[in-house]
Here is the input.
Amino acid sequence: MEHDTRSKLIEIATQLFATKGFAAVSVRELTVTAQINVAAISYYFNGKEGLYQAVLTEQFAPILQALRSAQLNDSLSPVERLTLYADQIAHIHAQRPFLARFMNNEVNNPTGYGGPIIEKHFSQVYQFMHTALREGIARGDFREDLNVTYATISLVGILNFYFMARPLIQKFTLFTEQTHTESEYTAQAFRIYLHGITQQPQTGQES
Here is the structure.
């Protein structure tokens, strides 16, 4: 019963916080919508702030799982690790349709409660990509003149920007709500990115 009540509060809070923002959602609105006693938020989360943090942690959990799965397999090359992570991003956004909103809200208007959580997760993603890119350069997979910091930031943007700006993008493009649009975009965008950073084979030298 306790697990059901806690899960229900997180589910209701996820939609309200994502659509209205943290400050605009009251404890009363949360409990009325969830049809739960007002004391439940304090009991399970120590207040609205704790509930918001629980929502963000739950939203970002699949990203950390994707990072771990890519990092733990020592047999994967840097390209394969990045590819594995990129392949999972579209699925994560599909499973968490409000994730991009939380990203956008906390990046542009960070709260004292959600900001540290977002920063922690972005830091881990950044370090994972940065490390993979540096290893790829050392192995000769990626271009030697690659600015690793810029390349990392570019990849984060490529994999997440579409989902953060999806309503606007769909308004001015041919993108629709088709089942595989997100995964197809992610796959193609990542292939284009890899083409730009991959070390190209020598075609011949002047005599």
Notes: The two ends are 79 Å apart (CA to CA).
